[in-house]
UniProtKB/TrEMBL annotation:
Name this protein carries in UniProt: Aminoglycoside phosphotransferase domain-containing protein
GO biological process: phosphatidylethanolamine biosynthetic process
Record lineage: Bacteria, Pseudomonadati, Pseudomonadota, Alphaproteobacteria, Hyphomicrobiales
Domain Aminoglycoside phosphotransferase: 11-213
GO molecular function, one term: ethanolamine kinase activity
One Gene Ontology term, aspect cellular component: cytoplasm
InterPro entries xref list: Aminoglycoside_PTrfase, Kinase-like_dom_sf
Amino acid sequence: MHRAVASDCVRVERAGGAAAFLKIRHPDMAADVVPWAADAARKAAALGVGPDVLGEAEGVLALACLDPPWRTATVGDLQDADTLGRVLDAKRRLHADAPLGRRFCPFDRIRALAVEAAATEAPLPRDATSLLAAVDLVREAIAAAGFDLRFCHNDGTASNVMLDGTALRLVDFDAAGDNDPWFDVATTINEACEFDAERRAAVERYAGRCDERLFNRCRLYGAVDDLMWGLWGVTRAVTTRRSGIEFFKYGQWRLLHARTALAARDFETWLRRL
């Protein structure tokens, strides 16, 4: 998992008011946070699926603090079908609203990270070129099939979900922006589901049905998500001075997931049936 590596997180008591939660971005993570993250967080708060934004400054975002009994979700929480369903319901509320007007493209992000990795001599795996080529095929197939841009969270990490009983909030809109909503769904499924039966049930929860094309799109987007974070991990391992965080290990883990999906015997079938 990666949790609170882009920012220092501080709880601040406010005179005459509720506590605030400050995200203070690390300088070495500046390229990993979209410039409109605060606007995205405000939009989510207005939709009732994110905490209120109290203020912002360069590299700092102040949010309403979700004190206990609120707690950070884990992958184990998301493996509960009802909890996963409520996360997908929250994401659907984002997708149903008007677009933000700011594009987030995971394919562009992958290419930017690949360029950065080459420039910094990050320890890429031997098959990096093949992985990038496979994702280019995914990009072409999805573009040919078409999609609508909707406001998306674009991050399926379990720790970006806060729980209080059945109440739920999405946090960390550092990668938010307009995108194919099925990428948003896929990143969440990719985090929570190990088996196809679980993936199909999650797709059905979101869409009311699970046809082959929706399932295939989620499987492909899951690999895209893994490659994006894998490249991020191995690149940040050489671009940050914070040696106490195992960026490389995390990146290798996500690259393994990407490799498994992109090398699956069904990969071409997923591409052809979108």
